[in-house]
Fold DNA-binding response regulator.
Amino acid sequence: MSQIRVLLADDEPLVRRGLRAILESEPDLIVVGEADDGAAVVAQARRTRPDIVLMDVRMPRVDGIAATRQLGRFDGGGPAVIVVTTFENDEYVYDALQAGARGFLLKRSTADDFIQAIRVVHNGESLLFPAAIRRLATRRGGPEGRRLAEANLTDREAEVLRLVAQGRSNSEIADELFLGVETVKTHVRNVLAKVGVRDRVQAVIAAYESGFIR
């Protein structure tokens, strides 16, 4: 079985220990390293080449936002980042999503939530919580919103983006619109290219910031 390589980044040793115990109980997950601040995350990621980083958003010295931004500059885009936070309405979470994180989890999430989240993101999807992203996005305007206003999406692309913003997976969108999954993937890629963003999370932020979705 191919294993998903995970790096844990949190300044609390107890949290890292708990996450390691959860993940290493699964045969397809392996923890390849731990870090207690953002600078150590980047160094560990270069050395261990993880697929996923579980990133505490608030850490001393270099925080999770700066670390996420640096990981995104790796050749090939670097590992996918899932932010781990105490409060879903934390402004730091929004900044981390804008910096390139693929989603977030609350620290009080269940073991199954963490395991499923890693698998979802590793499969190329994003971990979206539409209500939380909407609350955060509507407080802040930004360049993503302006990009969407100028993107000239087709009607079908706009329809797909609305469903993505509801947290639907590619297969769920395909069922809803009576399309093939590969066709949905093509529409999603076109949306990302036209809006000029790197992933689904960024596209959803743009959708809310621009008022495309209210």
In short: The chain has two domains: 4-127, 142-209. The two ends are 43 Å apart (CA to CA).
